[in-house]
Write a structure and sequence with these properties.
- By secondary structure, this protein is an alpha/beta fold.
- Helix 12 links the parallel strand 11 and strand 12.
- Strands 14, 18, 19, 20, 21, 23, 24, 25, 26 and 27 form a ten-stranded mixed β-sheet that branches. Strands 10, 11, 12, 13, 15, 16, 17 and 22 form an eight-stranded mixed β-sheet that branches.
- The N terminus is likely disordered.
- The longest helix is centred in the first third of the chain and has 33 residues.
- It has 19 helices and 27 strands.
- The two termini are about 50 Å apart.
- About 35% of the residues lie in helices and about 20% in strands.
Length: about 675
Amino acid sequence: MLAEGSLRSSSERFVNRELSWVDFASRILELAADAREPALERAKFLAVLAQGMDEFFQVRVAGLKDQLLAQHPIRSPDGLDARAQLRAIRTRLEPVWERQSEVWHDGIRPALAALGIEIVAVEDLSPTLHRRLHERFLEELFPILTPLSVDPAHPFPYISNLSLNLAVRVRDSQGGELRFARVKVPTNVPRLFPLGDLRYCLVEDVIASFIARLFPGMIIEEVGTFRVTRNTDLVLEEGEADDLLELVETELRRRRFGRAVRLEVSSRMSRELVDVLVDELELHPDDVWATDMPIDGSFAWEIVALPIDEGRGIAAAGVTPSIFTVGDDGAGALFGRLAAGEVLVHHPYESFASTVEAFVRAAAADPDVLAIKQTLYRTSGDSAIVEALVEAAEAGKQVVVIIEVKARFDELANIAWARHLEEAGVHVVYGVVGLKTHLKAAMVVRREGARLVRYCHVGTGNYNARTARTYEDLGLFSADTVLGDDLAEVFNYLTGFSHPNRLRRVVLAPQQLRGWLLERIARERDRGPSGRIRFKVNSLVDPEIIDALYDASAAGTPVEGVVRGLCSARVGVEGLSEHLRIRSIVGSFLEHSRIYVFGQGPDADVAIASADLMQRNLDRRVELLIPLEAPATRARVEHILDLAFADDTYAWELTADGRWHRQRGGEGISLQRRLNDEAGARG
């Protein structure tokens, strides 16, 4: 074990952020490989992993490559430069990449077959089915395919980001000349090409099998599947922009042509064909990732969506708390019930539609509501909330929506929502220059007699009905006057020119949140063994916060964290982190809520927040933390943490050797199953 002095004075205090993500990917893959999990649940984890890898390469790997090209001397907190990080990522990610194929072929595919779901190769079909498939190819696929050849008159075609393609080597049957061509797999057809009775071929295999029809008079020498990942991170110079919306749209157009950072190829593709792609895409051989499973494992979402009931994981209870039960007492009755006290909701165990959406719908319908103010970071394509806001504006209410058009991968959708809302008369604001507006809050202003009352919702998750069915999040409804005053200040800060310096209950980033957290960590540090720090976040990578937690641990203060994904802290290091305990829970639902508890008993600070322990959240985003006051609400949140630290089903524990070990056996406690059962019992 490293001595305290050398560890404190060196970069070894921190785990590399990118390698921590690889560890997280390994945990997801372990669930996909777990034969004890239902088959469709395993397929879901495979799809989640594929999507995560796509984002990792598009943003994190792409960023490191940009540093390398710019010869930027910046180093990560653990002391690695860009080149060293890229090498380490390749070394650590290769075993995960290779095991995906094993999990698919030897685990998930046979498990699906046991449910009657078969993914078959075209060459394995009977002659009769093969002929019928050829006929369907000509009817359903051939008309929409376009072969693009490469020769002096036809330059190498642009390969769009994450598109699935076939690379084809063809030889002229007359002149004998060898040429390269590319055929893009259409994105408007399913990957699963149905054969009947839950039997499918992959659409790219169907196209490859009959591709000769696209090249009459040519000899097909080779066909291989490939996919290109490009840099998709936006670089915005907001200070120089007159119109943020126009700036984002311009950058989105540029993003389509981002530099290639990864090439996925079928493991059967010849070296010659791979070399052509590497050369034309200006890639390095280390950027090539070969696989013998279907490229782009997110196709497994189509398997998960198949209409069968067997083989699934936990079904969210989705109950409606009694206070939100719909009656015949009018739209305003909900506000009367909310005025009686604060209400905490927990998704997906409690329904998003019948709580959060119902709150906004009631505000839109209630004639006594004068104004609605809300933030939108990511929302779903069929958003009932957006339509309720439109109805409210059309009814003459004052409606203000802060839309974050810089929300990564949701920029286009948010621009569309912004225009839709503006057309309806909603006041749309795009946040604060230089910062992302990541907080999740809504405020309803209602006339009640001679006074105006503010009803508030503050949450840890997005106003997104689709993800709310699978993301675990907390939300607080309150008519508290102090909270209402604070949120009014926050919304004025977001829409106008002001400094929210009179906040009494909520804590705002980037102005106060870092200081608030550090003060409470220091307070518990000074209490030593009688102090206590507990938290639940998606990521723990901020060096200053980690060092503060180390100091508390070194003072003997128990520090316990549930960190779903990225974790740069080390545990169990003598004199530094002996009293620091970190675990991760990865299960059927995406653990997404952020909880902070400092101290013990009735005087403890118990809070929920939109912010993780990351530099971007604390310094470059507008985030909100709200301390909880009602004893029942505080107890419920602490109960969630108690179960999280007792989980021995979907929990991994970080150990002093830097490895994550799954906790299995014991009492068989599952945080998610227990909370789901408790919600069902309440419902």
